[in-house]
């Protein structure tokens, strides 16, 4: 809750409207609002999340919550890239624009959501279904992207669907000294083999086509194996858990049928269940049919920013916004920066951070001044 108090202070400092929405017990969405001059127009939503993943301090060179800056200007902190940098860049760009006496036709909402790092199920997923979200009248959203090691910034217009799948295999138990037939392990092995064969096919497809990026193919990793009680007891059940990230152009019905086929081919007593299954992938247009993209890319060209549209390889809260009918781009203005989100010694250079504020200070006026669209007149 310290983050919520911090954001309340920022709202008072900047003269922004402030709202808290508890979407689940102890899960608060904080909204800071800069009112536009034309209430007929749809708003611009700038989203970020307040939670971070855990740290293992023994692997860090500096205290991960100290925000230590070294002699090269690198700021080491958990969330330095993911994505406390972006949330503060939004705030500082607005601070600069308000200090310059600027105002814009469209309202700008800054939303700070909890729970993104564990799927957003007690955060954005609930928030988009509430009347407080509808009251924002969102027309377009910016959310997090990724760092880029090169000069080019990546901009994400869609993302893969997370499918977290647990396969359970049942078979004959018995003494570990015997050749037990039709065991849970044998059947589970068949499923694992089928899944890893598919994994290799997708990897080869990615490696053989230089036009593809990671987000354009489906990945899967075996992440958990469970089963057994003793060395000398053949278990009656075993399970394997998989993290699938399904590309947005995949036929999801056909893909689940493929999973069913792998389980059926392994034999009787093999079942599966989903612990997470996103089935509403959406794509935000990145051509002139989308006036928001046209304006975003125009500003980037004017600032001589090289941008590359891609499909986000993991999952963010953008998927909930897109599914709610709000076009969204994932964009974190961090180039010449190694990708270190969730890693030990996560850092962002102060020069890159400050340039990000400059970028938003140009983007926000353009997006918040986008002329009325046909559905707004």
Automatic annotation (TrEMBL):
Q: Give the range the annotation lists for the signal sequence.
A: none
Which InterPro entries does the entry mention? Aminoacylase-1_M20A, ArgE/DapE_CS, Bact_exopeptidase_dim_dom, N-acyl_aa_amidohydrolase, Peptidase_M20, Peptidase_M20_dimer
Q: Which PROSITE patterns match?
A: ARGE_DAPE_CPG2_2
Give the first-level EC class, as a single word: hydrolase
Which positions fall inside the Peptidase M20 dimerisation domain? 159-268
User: One short Pfam family name for this protein?
Assistant: Peptidase_M20
Where along the chain is the active site annotated? 51, 116
Q: Does the keyword Metal-binding apply?
A: yes
* Chain coiled-coil ranges: none
- Which GO annotations describe the biological process of this protein? amino acid metabolic process
Q: How many and how are cofactors bound here?
A: Binds 2 Zn(2+) ions per subunit.
Q: Which cofactor does it need?
A: Zn(2+)
Per its record, what are the GO molecular function terms? Answer: aminoacylase activity; identical protein binding; metal ion binding
Localization per record = Cytoplasm
Give the UniProt keywords, A-Z.
Answer: Cytoplasm, Hydrolase, Metal-binding, Zinc
User: What NCBIfam families has UniProt attached to this entry?
Assistant: Ac-peptdase-euk
What family is this protein classified in? Belongs to the peptidase M20A family.
Protein name in UniProt: N-acyl-aliphatic-L-amino acid amidohydrolase
Q: Which organism is it from?
A: Sarcophilus harrisii
């Amino acid at each position: 809750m310290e983050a919520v108090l911090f954001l309340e202070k920022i709202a008072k400092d900047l003269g922004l409207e402030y709202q808290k929405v508890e979407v689940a017990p102890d899960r608060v969405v904080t909204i800071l609002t800069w009112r536009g001059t034309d209430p007929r127009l749809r708003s611009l939503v700038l989203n970020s999340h307040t939670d971070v993943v855990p740290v293992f301090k023994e692997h860090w060179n500096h205290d991960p919550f100290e925000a230590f800056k070294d002699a090269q200007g690198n700021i080491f902190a958990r969330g330095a890239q993911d994505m406390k940098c972006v949330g503060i860049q939004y705030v500082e760009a607005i601070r600069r624009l308000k200090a310059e006496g600027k105002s814009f036709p469209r309202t700008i909402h800054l939303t700070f959501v909890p729970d993104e790092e564990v799927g957003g199920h007690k955060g954005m997923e609930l928030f988009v279904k509430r009347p407080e979200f509808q009251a924002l009248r969102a027309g377009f959203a910016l959310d997090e992207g990724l760092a880029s090691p090169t000069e080019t910034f990546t901009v994400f217009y869609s993302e893969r669907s997370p499918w977290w799948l647990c396969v359970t295999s049942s078979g004959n138990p018995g003494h570990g000294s015997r050749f037990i037939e039709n065991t849970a392990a044998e059947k589970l092995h068949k499923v694992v083999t089928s899944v890893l064969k598919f994994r290799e096919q997708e990897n080869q497809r990615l490696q053989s086509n230089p036009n593809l990026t990671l987000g354009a193919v489906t990945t899967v990793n075996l992440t958990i194996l469970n089963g057994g009680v003793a060395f000398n007891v053949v278990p009656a059940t075993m399970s394997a858990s998989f993290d699938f990230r399904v590309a947005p152009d995949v036929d999801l019905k056909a893909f689940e049928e493929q999973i069913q086929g792998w389980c059926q081919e392994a034999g009787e007593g093999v079942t599966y269940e989903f612990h997470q299954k996103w089935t509403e992938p959406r794509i935000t247009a990145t051509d002139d049919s989308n006036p928001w993209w046209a304006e975003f890319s125009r500003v980037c060209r004017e600032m001589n920013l090289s941008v590359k549209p891609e499909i986000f390889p993991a999952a963010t809260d953008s998927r909930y916004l897109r599914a709610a009918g709000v076009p969204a781009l994932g964009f974190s203005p961090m180039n010449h920066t190694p990708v270190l989100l969730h890693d030990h010694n996560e850092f962002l250079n102060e020069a890159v951070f400050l340039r990000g504020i400059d970028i938003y200070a140009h983007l926000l006026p353009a997006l918040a001044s986008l002329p009325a669209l046909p559905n707004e007149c």
